[in-house]
Amino acid sequence: MVAPQHEKNGRTAVLAAARDLFDSHGFHQTSMAELAASAHVSVGQMYRLFKGKEDIIEALVIDNADQWCAEMNALRRQLDGGELSIDQTFEALLRHTVDSEDEALAFDILAEGFRNQAVSKTIGDMCARFRNIIRYFASAANPRLTGQDLDAAEEVVLACLFGLGHRSLSRPRLDAACTAARSAEMILAALRSLAPAPDPRSS
């Protein structure tokens, strides 16, 4: 039986190795034996910790989501506490996305989500967690947003986060800081310009 702390250390080592190897070599080009060697664990221990590479991908998605949600919730607490304005909150949110170093890995994870139902569900669950916080930020930017307008704001901001997190191949003209600042300005201008849709029952 693997001791709990030893198992935790082994999982941490395997996930760190997977993050590095999947990012540099690709998910399908990396073998379990390579992962075990890079993580300094035996292949047998690898299979005690994870059923296979798909299980590792799911664990990476959950790990990323936990970290990202913790950071987003920290931004929310700073916003609620008056330490950040909503403008600063959106800029910090986008800066985190633009500064992501796991772009190639993120592409591989998304591609695997289309092939693997379990990975797809994990990604969907992760996005559901993000949506709640994004919706809160959109409401803070424009408290008049309700219904479909708020739903659409949530979709647009989430799409921007996904898009800006995969920008390097498009040969961007702006650096990360400028991209985050200007994108935040544009998103906020769009959110603030929206007025509640007229109630059809009043006509």
Report what the structure shows.
- The chain has 203 residues and is mainly α.
- It has two domains: 1-50, Arc Repressor Mutant, subunit A, CATH 1.10.10; 52-195, Tetracycline Repressor, domain 2.
- The protein is built from nine helices and no strands.
- The protein has helices at 4-25, 32-39, 43-49, 53-80, 86-98, 103-115, 117-141, 147-164, 176-193.
- Helix 4 (53-80) packs antiparallel against helix 5, helix 6 (103-115) crosses helix 7 and helix 7 crosses helix 8 (147-164).
- The protein is elongated, with a radius of gyration of 20 Å.
- The protein starts with a helix and ends in a 10-residue tail after the last helix.
- Residues 31-50 bind DNA.
- Keywords: DNA-binding, Transcription, Transcription regulation.
- This is TetR/AcrR family transcriptional regulator.
Number of domains: 2
For the residues shown, what is the average pLDDT? Answer: 88
Give, in order, the helices and strands: HHHHHHHHH
User: Sheet with the most strands?
Assistant: none
Proper CATH architecture of the largest domain? Orthogonal Bundle
Protein name: TetR/AcrR family transcriptional regulator
Domain HTH tetR-type: 8-68
DNA-binding region: 31-50
Keywords: DNA-binding, Transcription, Transcription regulation
